[in-house]
Specification:
The chain is α/β, with parallel strands linked by helices. It has a single domain, classed as Spore Coat Polysaccharide Biosynthesis Protein SpsA, Chain A, CATH 3.90.550. The chain contains ten helices and ten strands. It has helices spanning about 15-25, 50-60, 75-90, 110-120, 160, 170-175, 180-190, 190-200, 210-220, 270-280, and strands spanning about 5-10, 35-40, 65-70, 95-100, 105, 125-130, 145, 155, 220-225, 230. It has an eight-stranded mixed β-sheet, sandwiched between helices. A two-stranded antiparallel ribbon has the order 5-10. Helix 7 (about 180-190) runs parallel beside helix 10 (about 270-280). It is globular, with a radius of gyration of 18 Å. The N and C termini lie far apart (about 40 Å).
């Protein structure tokens, strides 16, 4: 199996980055995975020591297939950091797995991501593979699709990424015709138009809202696991959270307990999960 490169984005949270990389290091396939860590620059002089500490964590002797550290001399912000970093990696590779410093992967995360990036590489309907999941339920299949992209541990493909619109004005215009149905309900429940307007006004610095809007406008879906492979430990003190979240207990799935689907699944939207999502976001 050809493994997707992994990009990890960090800024000034050395403790969270250490936790993230330590968990990633315990993954099956970690010792064969090429990991690039992007460390954003300080916004103020007061942040310089925190950024230095984060760079030192990134530069430690991690047991990955290879480790590359990219440090920015200036503060680019999360949006520019992710868009440019993912574009850099996908300039040389066909697929990618992405983490931020506050997303903690369970031991089966890389296996799940690589298996499904391979399975759906030819699909024109799948926007991404998500390691995070909102739900764990006996009423849901082992994996399922929703018309909603998550950014807490995810993966995608080169062609899809470079066809994504990151012009927020256009993103807002593209949603004008979606006023009803499942996607209309998600747009309203997740306040997507409000987040796009906030980005235009400069009160939000998020690449993820354009990513979400692009998938909604094109009718794309994201694959989710039944039970989360990601814990987010930093969204209460992060600086780029685009929308409020309710606290969620992490459903940790160990590799030995997780049964991978070894075949393509119909990319039809899972109505049960999508109804739950809309209620959760509302």
């Amino acid at each position: 199996m050809s493994l997707a490169p992994v990009a990890v984005f960090a800024h000034r949270r050395s403790g969270e980055l250490s936790t993230c990389l330590s968990a990633l290091e315990r993954n099956l396939l970690a010792d064969r995975s090429n990991v690039t860590i992007f460390v954003d620059g300080a916004r103020t002089a007061e942040e310089e020591s925190e950024v230095l500490a984060t760079y030192q964590v990134a530069s430690a002797d991690w047991r990955f297939g290879s480790t590359t550290v990219r440090q920015s001399d200036t503060n680019r912000g999360l949006r520019r950091s992710v868009v440019s970093g993912v574009s850099e990696i996908l300039g040389d590779h066909t697929e990618i797995v992405v983490l931020e410093d506050d997303t903690i992967p369970s031991p089966g995360f890389l296996l799940f991501m690589n298996e499904n990036l391979g399975l759906y590489s030819e699909s024109r309907e799948v926007q991404a593979i998500s390691g995070f999941s909102y739900f764990k339920s006996r009423r849901l299949a082992e994996t399922y699709f929703m018309p909603f992209s998550e950014t807490w541990g995810w993966g995608t493909w080169r062609d899809l990424w470079f066809n994504t619109n990151f012009d927020t004005q256009k993103s807002l215009a593209d949603l004008e015709h979606i006023t009803d149905g499942v996607r209309g309900a998600i747009i309203d429940a997740a306040s997507v138009r409000g987040m796009l307007s906030g980005q235009i006004a400069g009160t939000i610095d998020s690449w993820g809202v354009d990513w979400l809007a692009d998938g909604l406008s094109k009718g794309l879906v994201t694959l989710y696991p039944n039970g989360s492979l990601i814990e987010n430990i930093g969204h209460y003190n992060g600086t780029h959270t685009a929308r409020k979240r309710h606290a969620r207990k992490w459903d940790r799935i160990e590799t030995r307990e997780f049964v991978l689907d070894n075949g393509l699944r119909d990319t039809a939207i899972c109505e049960e999960a999508t109804r739950r999502l809309i209620r959760f976001l509302s």
